[in-house]
C-alpha cells in the first residue's frame, strides 16, 4: 500500500482485481536441507506451508545458512500434522502437535519430533525464516510513478457517490490504457491513487503526461511523481524506501504538476524532456531534503498537444 500524505490522500484499499491464492500453486518455493516452504503473497502478508522432515533441526541444518546461534524469526502458525519441538534461549522446551496454535518468539532452536514430518501453516516468520531477509529477498531497480486525483473529496461532495464512481471508473480505465501504451505495470491502486512501475524514467514521465491529459478531458486534475530507486519485490507487490519517497514527492506536487527526483531527472537526460528546478524539499520520513524538479509545460518530444491519448478498450480518445 502507499499514501501520498496530502489532504486528499487515498485511503488504503485492497488492490483491484486480486485473485484467490492457493498453496498448491505458490508464489515462491524454498527447498533447504530437511525443510520445505511454499509461500503465497496476499498484499503485504505472507502465508506459508512449512514441512519439517524427520531428523531436521535448525541448529544442525540451518545455522550455517542463516547465521547466528539461534533462529531469530518470530513464528506464528498452526500445526496440521506431526510434531515439532522448540528450545528457547532461556532453556524452556515447547512441543506442538496437530491443531496446536503456536507463537514462538525470536531466539530459539526448532526441531522435528518422531518419524513423521511436521506440517505447519505460518502467517508470521515466513519472510525472515532461514535468513530470508538477507539471502532470498528480491531487490530490483525500478522507476516508480505515483498519481492521485486532486481534491477528490470535494468532487464527491459536489457530484455525489454514484456520479463519482462512474467518473473514477472512466479515469481508471483510461489510465490503464495509458500504462499499456507506455509499457508500465500497475502495482497498486488505493482509492483514486495509482502506483505503477516502468523500465525507464522517460516512459513513466510520458505516461504521467498522458494520464494528466486524459484526466483533464474528464474535468479532473491530478498530481504525479516519478522516482527511480531500489525496491523489494515480494510476490506481486513492491515496497521499500523508494516507494515511500515517490509517494512523498507526489504529496509535494501542486495540482496538475508532475514532480521528479533528481535521480529521475539525471537518468532522463537526452529524452527531450525539460524540467524546472523546484529546490530542496523536506519529505516526511526521509532523512535528508531532496531536490525536486517539475516537468516544464508545453510540447515534449514523444507527446505533444496534438497526440492522441490511448483510449480505453473499445472507446474513443
Describe the structure in your own words.
- The chain is of the alpha+beta class and 317 residues long.
- It contains 8 helices and 17 strands.
- A hairpin with a 2-residue loop joins strand 13 (222-234) and strand 14 (237-239).
- The radius of gyration is 24 Å and the shape is elongated.
- The model is unreliable at 1-17, 130-136 and 300-317 (pLDDT under 50).
Structure annotation, total helices: 8
Q: At the first level of CATH, what is the class of the largest domain?
A: Alpha Beta
- Residues in helices, as a percent range: 10-25%
Tell me the number of strands: 17
Largest sheet: 8 strands, mixed
What is the CATH architecture term of the largest domain? 2-Layer Sandwich
Report low-confidence residues grouped into runs of 5 or more. 1-17, 130-136, 300-317
What would the CATH topology of the largest domain be?
Alpha-Beta Plaits
Alpha-carbon distance between the termini?
31 Å
Mean pLDDT: 83
Instruction: Quote the beta fraction.
Output: 35-45%
CATH superfamily of the largest domain: Nucleotide cyclase, GGDEF domain
Number of domains: 2
Strand-pairing-aware structural class: alpha+beta
Order of helices and strands: EEEHHEEEEEEHEHHEEHEEHEHEE
Shape: elongated
Rg, please?
24 Å
